[in-house]
Amino acid sequence: MNSKSQDLKRPRSLPSVVAWLNRPAAQRVVLALCFGVNALLFIFNGARPNYLAILAAVTGLISSLVLVTLLARWYSHTDYLDIRQYTGVPTPEFWTTYVVAILTVVNTLLSFFKEQLHTTSSKVLFSTSLIVLLMAPMTVRYLYDAVRERLLEKARADVISSLDQRDLEDLDVRIELKEEKAKINFAQNLKSKIVLESFHVRDTVLFPETEWKLQPGVNVLLGRNGYGKSLILRMLAGTLQNDDEVLKTLLQKSGTGLMELHLTRDENGAVVRRNARRFVDSIGKVPLLAIPDSRFVDRSQDVIGPEDNETTDLIVNGAYHFLYQKQYGSVVRGLMYELGLDYWEHGKTFDLPVFDFLEECVRRMTDYDFEFKEITRKGRTGFEIKVRTEGNPEALPIQYASQGTLSVLAMFGLIRSYVRGLSARVDNELVEKGSAIVLIDEADAHLHPAWQQKFPTLLRDLFPNVQFILSAHSPLFVAGCWRGEVAVLRRVQTNTALGGFRLEQPDEDFVGATPADLYQKIFDIEELDATYLEYATKATIQSNRDERIEELIKLKRKDQLSAKQKEELDALELESSRINLAANVQQQRLEESNKDAQIEKLEAKILKLETKIEEQNKNTVS
Amino acid sequence: MSDFRQRLLELYSRGPVEEVHALNDYQTFIKGFEGNRTLDAERSKMQERRSMVDQALSGCESIKDQIEAALRLLYRRLSADEKEDCLQLIKRSYAKQWSAAQQSYFESNAKRFLDYLDYFLSFTNRSPAQDKPNPINESHDYFLRKVMKHKPYKNSDYIKQNLVADTIHYLLSGQHLQGFHHPDHEGDNQKVEAKLRENCNKAFAFVQLVQAEIFHDAPNWCFFEYQLVENEDKKIIFIEIERPEEDAPKAHPNFKSWYQASQLKDSVKLLPTPDYSAAALAIVGQNRLEIIQNVKSQIRRTINQIYIQIPN
Q1: For the residues A402-411, what does the mean pLDDT come to?
Q2: Chain A to chain B Cβ contacts (< 8 Å)
Q3: How close does chain A come to B113, measured CA to CA in Å?
Q4: Nearest-5° angle of CA B111, CA B106, CA B97?
Q5: Do B146 and B16 reside in the same domain of the chain?
Q6: Which residue of chain B comes nearest to A540, CA vs CA?
Q7: Which single residue of A31, A198, A204, A206 has CA 20 to 30 Å from B207?
Q8: Are both B170 and B304 inside the same structural domain?
């Protein structure tokens, strides 16, 4: 078992005897003993006395126990273990146990048919047939695997030996050229303005077939948990980044799987296509910043030090952490460290565009004051960044700001840093005008609903040339979005077991939409809670509750209420007030829906009048 | 349909909400499942649907008015489940008092109202200018920019798409009309054909954008779509977005009759506005009114005909 599968191993406790037997050394000793005893008993079967029969039974039991242990071990690791160890290529323990188990069966049967099997030859024939019969399945399986393995090895050796030195050189050249081409493509893509137009997937994990039409500005993807928001974003990121490793795990093995991305590169149309096996059309790796949902900063550390990890280079590895689901803390810390460097390298001043920009972002988003107050050196390479937030007159380490504020800082800071890195212009004031593609998973996480409503508009204002692809849970996120900018993941209504999800893009603007509208339109969420539903039902059930309350109140007035009755009265009154409240809500809902009926009745009246006028006109003319 | 829903439908069909709640059957059923949240949710929905039906249909002066109210209720933008329940409640309660002819008229039209579109928009993306902006977009450029100023089109859109169609669809959608606008006819022709046929059937009105390009090649999707409705009892509205030359229909013998139909007097005309000018500004306003008043009212009239024709 390799270390990776060890890590993934699901621990399950085994009973202590079984745990002891689970040790390979112990198993081998026990099995060797069992095997020896059984073999001897087998040889001297005809003459063996009773104690030997008991010994056979005991050794058979032990070997069965070992077999159970092996099966338990196999079962406990079944999801993650390299099961060939226990099936295709059995271990010595397994073989020994198998043989002991067979010998035990043969021994037992020989004892049972002792009377019938008179001669030695009949015993030998009977035993041999039984052994052959019982050994057959595992032996056939073993032989099949061995032959198959040899044939494969031979075929591989034939192919390799048929290669001459020139072929190998060609292969080396090919690999070099491939790498060179990838570099050139990436360099070209870095300089180009790339805009995604549509993303079509077929026969992938969770998605039988769906298409997402993308807008050049903000694109918001909504969906419930488990509907594949992050998955489709990973597919898109993998296709953009030309990442075979990620995509091969996301396409179905059926061979019809496809991911197709239409885009424009410097206004010229291009297609990236990846089928179940490989990329059939590609423009190489496209720069992408993909920010995963966990944008945490380790709050236990006040000092922010340099990050050595080369994966924090956003231009080259901007999507790495998202694609490979790695911790993102190092990237956010890298951003903070850059802030510290900027401050110190520019004469310890906060009068720099990056600080103005971040302060402005937090202010616009949160409507409260936010200010960078102090950056001090800690140790040889570390920084401590202090900020002032609303309600805190004292400057605090940045890590102590709210999770929402940190998330806003991280997102806007990273986007700015990324766009700045991509932009050839050095003029800081123009940095935000640069073009790029940025993907943010669960962009609404940690944000207050009021911030959620502002977020997409703020992105649009601050980075007008960036194409954003955002996933979110909150329908508030789409407030202010135009037609085509919103996509919602829905379950495919199908009779087959396959099911899956598809994207739906509502054909309407969401400008000025109310939260209730958004919840209903986007998630089909009715604002009815289970408590309301319960009491609304109770309101329709006939009971003697009111009569009983009256009765108890009368007693109360006469000071004749016992403690138990008082308790009963309180409970009944509480229940009654809740039922009345639910009934009132029900009535309000009914009045609300009555407006539609009234409008319809007015429209019907207008139609009647119009028809009458038309008839009168006709009569006048005739 | 779940057992709860079926049973509740049966109970709430017996009369107005208050009467139903007083029934022994209702009380026994609800008490039997007290505390069951699924039942609570289903019951609340069914009660609201029954109330919705009563609000719409009660107080009508005549049976004809009642049927009209029932159809108007089904025309509302409700979910499929809501519509289905309302239809069943109407059929099991109010419809029992209607004549056989009225019932049959209601049933056949109610089916259409369960899943409908107000209009089907037929147009072409084809352009005589390859790799350059489509002339039809250029000739209506100011109109497009003025109506869609919140979301300017890209240069590639001007080349690939019929933006006049997109803008008209946008204006009509803003008038609470649901339409079918399919900007790409790519992929498997059989699938496209089935999709067009299905949506065309669902639509009350067929709106086709007339321009020279649609009469040039055969076969083409615009002609296919026109053929779907040519002999159907469906309102056809032609919107002339470009005056086709008189000898435009040469590619197919049947194009001539199609062309002639499109040139009838009542077709809506959108005047070109290639650039900004004071006159163009006035034309944009006029074009906008043509869509949101003239076309809209033609579509509405088609639906109103269904109400007018309800048998006495």
Answers
A1: 87
A2: 86
A3: 15
A4: 135
A5: no
A6: B21
A7: A198
A8: yes
> Does residue A256 have a pLDDT over 70?
yes
Q: Among residues B114, B138, B172, which one ends one of the domains?
A: B114
Looking at the structure, do residues B108 and B123 belong to the same domain, yes or no?
no
Q: In what order do the strands lie in the sheet with B117-122?
A: B179-180, B117-122, B203-210, B235-240, B268-269
Distance from CA of A232 to the nearest CA of B (A): 22
**Mutate which: A200, A600, A611, A618, vs B, most B CBs within 10 A:** A600
Tell me the C-alpha to C-alpha distance, in Å, between residue A541 and each of A537, B4, B37, B52. 7, 17, 15, 21
Question: Which residues, given as ranges, of chain B have pLDDT below 70?
Answer: 1, 150-151, 184-187, 251, 265
Q: Alpha-carbon distance A74 to A72, whole Å?
A: 5
- pLDDT of B234 reads 85
**B35 lies in the same domain as B110:** yes
User: Are B44 and A536 in contact (CB < 8 Å)?
Assistant: yes
Question: Residue B281: which CATH number?
Answer: 3.40.50.10140
Q: Which residues contact B242 (CB under 8 A, 6 or more apart)?
A: B136, B139, B210, B211, B212, B213, B272
**DSSP letter assigned to residue A45:** G
Q: Is B307 on the interface with A (CB under 8 A)?
A: yes
CA atoms within 13 A on the CB side of A452: 20
User: Minimal Cα distance from B309: which residue of A?
Assistant: A611
Share of chain A above pLDDT 90, in %: 16
Contacts of B39 in chain A (CB under 8 A): 537
In this model, does residue A496 exceed pLDDT 70? no
How far apart are the C-alpha atoms of A334 and A336, rounded to whole Å? 5
Alpha-carbon distance B247 to nearest alpha carbon in chain A (angstroms): 36
Give B21 to chain A, closest Cα distance, Å: 6
**Residue closest to A318 by CA, chosen among A296, A340, A292:** A292
- pLDDT over 50 (residue A81): no
What is the rounded radius of gyration, in angstroms, for the C-alpha atoms of chain B?
A: 24
Range of the domain at B29: 3-114
In this prediction, residue B92 carries a pLDDT of 95
Residues of B in contact with A508 (CB under 8 A): 173
Taking the C-alpha atoms of residue A423 and residue A436, their distance in angstroms, rounded to an integer, is 9
Query: Reduced to 3 states, what is the DSSP secondary structure of residue A272?
Result: strand
Q: Measure CB to CB from residue B40 to each of A533, A601, A607 and give the nearest one.
A: A533
Residues 238-297 of B with CB under 8 A from A: none
**pLDDT-derived band of residue A25, with 50, 70 and 90 as boundaries?**
low
- pLDDT grade, residue A88 (50/70/90)? very low
Mean pLDDT of A591-613: 84
Query: Which of B43, B79, B154 comes nearest A216 by C-beta?
Result: B154
Question: Which residues in chain B touch residue A216, judged by CB atoms under 8 angstroms apart?
Answer: 154
Whether the CB of B47 is below 8 Å from some CB of chain A: the reply is yes
Q: Do B97 and B229 have their domain in common?
A: no
pLDDT (0 to 100) of residue B150? 67
Strand A466-472 with B117-122, pairing? unpaired
CB burial readout A206-231, b (16+ within 10 A) else e:
bbbebbbbbbbbbbbbbbbeebbbbb
Q: What share of chain B is helix, strand, coil (3-state, %, to 5)?
A: 60, 10, 30
Pair (B109, B189) in one structural domain: no
Please indicate whether, in this complex, the C-beta atoms of A593 and B48 are within 8 angstroms of each other. Answer: yes
Between A170 and B162, name the one with better pLDDT. Answer: B162
B214 and B270 within one domain: yes
Tell me the shortest Cα–Cα distance from A594 to chain B, in angstroms: 6
The residue written with tokens 């601050």 in the block is A462
Tell me, yes or no, if B97 comes closer than 8 A to chain A by beta carbon: no
Q: Is B100 on the interface with A (CB under 8 A)?
A: no
- B173 part of contact set with chain A, CB < 8 Å: yes
Average pLDDT of A484-502?
73
